[in-house]
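Anyone able to model this chain together with beta-D-glucopyranose?
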Amino acid sequence: MQLELIVSRPTRITAVLLSSVCICLPLAPWVHAQSASGLLSSPTQTGSTKPTGQSFAERPWMDKSLPSERRADLLVQQMTPDEKIAMMHGVNAMTGDPVHGYDFVLPSKGYVGYVPPIRRLGIPALTLADGRAGVGNKAKDVTLLPAPIAAASSWDPSLLNEFGRVLGQEQWSKGTNVALGPSIDVVRVPEWGRTFESYGEDPYFNGVMAAAEIKGIQGEGPIADANMYVTMNQESDRYRADSVVDERTLHEIYLPPFEAAVRDGHVGTFMCAYVKTNSIYSCENANLLHHLLRDQLKFDGWVMSDWGATHSTADSAKNGLDQQMPDDTFFGETLKNAVKGGQVSESIIDEHVHNILVPMFQHGLFDKTQTGTWTSNVRSPEHDSFSRMVAEQGTILLKNDQAILPVSDHASIAVIGEAGSTKPKIEGGGSSAVIAPYVISPLDGIRKRARASQVPYADGKDLAAASKTAAAAQIAIVFVHTNETEGEDRPDLELPENQDQLVAAVAAANKHTIVVLDTGGPVLMPWATDVAGIIEAWYPGQEDGNAIAAVVYGDFNPSAKLPLTFPKSAAEIPTAQKEQWPGVGGRSLYTERLNVGYRWYDATHTEPLFPFGFGLSYTTFQLSHLVVEPTELKSKPGGETGNVLIKLDVTNTGKRMGGEVVQAYVGQPPSNGEPPHQLRAFTKVELHPGETKSVSLVLDERSFATFDPGADRWIFPDGEYEVFVGTSSRDLPLHSRVVIGPPGNAQ
Ligand code: BGC
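re: yes, here you go
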């Protein structure tokens, strides 16, 4: 976030009101209760959570044997109104300003969100820090991982889980107990400025990755804060934009990652988004926060607002916002007055505080002692190696004519482009930005690895000089980049700064040209047919050069796949109309409905440049012997169908060890009105040359469901469902069918 723009400071009046004893309506018990203590925290508290000698009889909520819900109930009963309100908003940990009249000592100036401790009751402080690719907010001595889109390109949930663990460890060791991440919105608009922060364009895929990463983060101590809930699909006009989306699309495309975050990831918090959904701001949207999140998805944690995304007091409190971040503009004094004035009931306040406390108990915040601080050095050699491993696992080989890659040890190579050396493009901007402890540039990495005596370099600003450098080498590798950041979308899908001309000039000078894309999302490649090789390396983090050298020389055999479609032209994308993006009159119409990403290319028979799920390897694979069981399902009275098991063989038919991602898509009967086929299961398998492995996948019930907005539930219509299995959304050689029949005894 651009903190200076939207953080408002608490006023002195707020301070006086919140720190004084009863000054309010005489008969309201909610108000009377505050005289019990009236203290938010003492001037010298530092956030220690250790109970101060009290027994469970005095502090029954400290009894770990009780369920978290019960502990939260017991604690809420003991809290004064001041204390409750204090939990419902942040204070300014960035500036360290005194808040509410107390000069309490902040743990340090650093956390982007901070809720002071309440020592009287043993409630720990909440310390919030950004972290999508490493601990953000200008923290020092942390690891810069590749962008999440790179990690997701591995199509390996276990890698995402480890990614979360590394993030979680570093956050926890920095004293953070609420880690702001991951960003899990489906990429609807390829120009979206936060594409690099997310996982891609498929709801099921994003859900699998989200759950894996969240479990990783939360397994290390901090509560994860999955964001941004929901339809946060553009940065243009993001503080006002209205995502106009029908309920079916909302359920089928935009909610599933959040659903998986709850169901499989057990996420503790969500961040509601800046944008509106169907005219109502996300953080005061009863449909989103009450009906969908609580009633349907059964979320039992808390919802905090994105920084500056709260727009009201009573509406937000009544419609489901639990906590305002980063300050108290709406949830401080004004909320207190709203309770006094009867616009917000006391039970609503209790509910919000309960929602915050439950995950704090669930994730052990009351029971563990956290020792690290914002200035701790949390790096390790293991994390450096992990960063490199993710960069390798996330690098996608898109084109490899005449097996130009991997290059031979002795080939003479020229490195061209600013991203190749003088400005390595290792990360995206905004709240994801991380201070890298070091950067290995591609030129450094390639020079270190090359056996050739020299690797000449041209930054590419002078096209003639770049062409000359390229012509003198056997192979020219051009590094191109985009500049992506939160707060703005890319204006178009073109490479900025004349880089298309640079590639064209180098390709004209050397027919063995390889382009490495350090981009956060898709770009157009007017030169695609003129170059021999194309690699998508995304924003690869601190180990950029080592990872790309390993791929270029074949020390690592690429196995990553695109988690989103690369289009051929700007006109041929699902959101090409300005009514769709960036919107007209503040409204972005989701008229493509279910046809997001590859679904649109398939539905409209549009040839992409590179399809969803695509990626090459230095070896080859064959898929065979597909078995799908059962092939007939009787829907049960509630409509559910049961799962379907897929089995097949995968053989490495080439000469190198390598990994392949097996992808299963389901095509619904045309009468269901669904896109042609949709990803419903995937798995990654590593194979030695000549080796065959049997692979199993499960199609869960949702694979055969559509959302019925009239009935407000998922339905499983009878009919013939197609099952396609292959290695990209456009390469599906194996096929079977599953028939769903009328209700009866399933299977
Ligand atoms: C971003 C969030 C981020 C927050 C705090 C906001 O501008 O949208 O993703 O967590 O700032 O930095």
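Residues 157-173 form the longest helix (17 residues).
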